[in-house]
Specification:
single chain, 457 residues, Fumarase C, Chain B, domain 1, Ribonucleotide Reductase Protein R1, domain 1, 3 domains, two-stranded antiparallel ribbon, 61% helix, elongated
Amino acid sequence: MAQLWGGRFTKETDDLVYRFNASIGFDQKFYKQDIEGSIAHVKMLKKTGILTEKEASDIEKCLGEILSDVENKRLEISDKYEDIHSFVEATLIDRLGDTGKKLHTGRSRNDQVALDMRLFTREEIKETEGLLKDLLVVIYNIMDANLDTIMPGFTHLQKAQPITLAHHMGAYFEMFKRDRSRLKDILERMNYCPLGSGALAGTTYPLDREYTAELLGFYGPTLNSIDGVSDRDYLIEFLSALSIIMMHLSRFSEEIIIWNSNEYQFVEIDDAYSTGSSIMPQKKNPDIAELVRGKTGRVYGALMSLLTTMKAIPLAYNKDMQEDKELSFDAFDTAKGCIALFTGMLKTISFNKDRMYASASGGFTNATDAADYLVNHGVPFRDAHGIIGELVLYCINKNCSIEDLTIAELKSISDVFEEDIYDAISMETCVNKRLTIGAPGKEAMQKVLAIYREEIK
């Protein structure tokens, strides 16, 4: 068991305790960040005169070689080390001897792991943001191609009013646009460097924390060394943002699943994103959408786990905080995988436009517009609402739509109706006369698309 802290102890740690305590099995993901942080630390130690030019040069060169050897599979990260920090430092000492022992000057594993987690999470946020942009491009392209594709809009899963596919997709564009914005906010808040905080009280060495922060792409150093080693707010925020992203993906998936059903037939999912049944040859299952929906709970679990872990931890660092990693790593990978797969599925999906139009026409989605027609002809809205309700009931009993009725039938319910009612309640009119920004009318949607183009540039 390779440990860097044995001087205080008179016997070795029990093997079971050691393995329970060790984190090398999962924090080895940090090898690149750990070495990157160590190189920045060494550069700073040289700048401040704590290390000589040669010492710093030798350590930096050797750290670069270790990184290259790990990435090219010439060096295996061994579980005989407690954590990734121990592995990197012990390997450095093996190769450089006493000079390698100077790497940890002015540093604790507490601020080291705080830095590694921050660097790693920062990259994960950037990758996730890039995947969301790809998804937004796909949604935008669907919107741009479907300004005239009429479909029913729903409330309570019941047909409500006619909209367009572009308008429906625009709701998801807004959701994922907000998700990108949340990620950018998190980056702004988290982009400060904890290295130099020491175990919790800084150090007596004349460190240049501003220089270290600059080398690592941070805005500056964290301003409280206790908070520097014990802050995981940024990680909780990121897991929260991922949970919201997954919630949006799950809602979208649910609709794809419904639209893919035999009853709706609004969409045809590409064969590459579907599977069949082992017993029923006619089946084409929306497995990707179902798995995305199912994996949402997995990401929620990581958020709740970390919130629960952090809720009663006194300042500063405690070993409980090692639990910030495993589930977080899983959530990062799960969310990125789900975004990428959902984007591929959505990009290749086919929309049954005729079926959508027929569904909008057959569900009394123009009933509100028929009421508005009466209001525009002097009928008080509450009376108009009652007249159209009676009209819908008449159509249900006759198994037809409002536009199928003759003018005589319409007048038998209200003599206000005239021939222009048919144009007023056509699907196209119902959609395109809605011109306020945010509405489904083509003119309004074109203005929104111009704004969205800027979002995805």
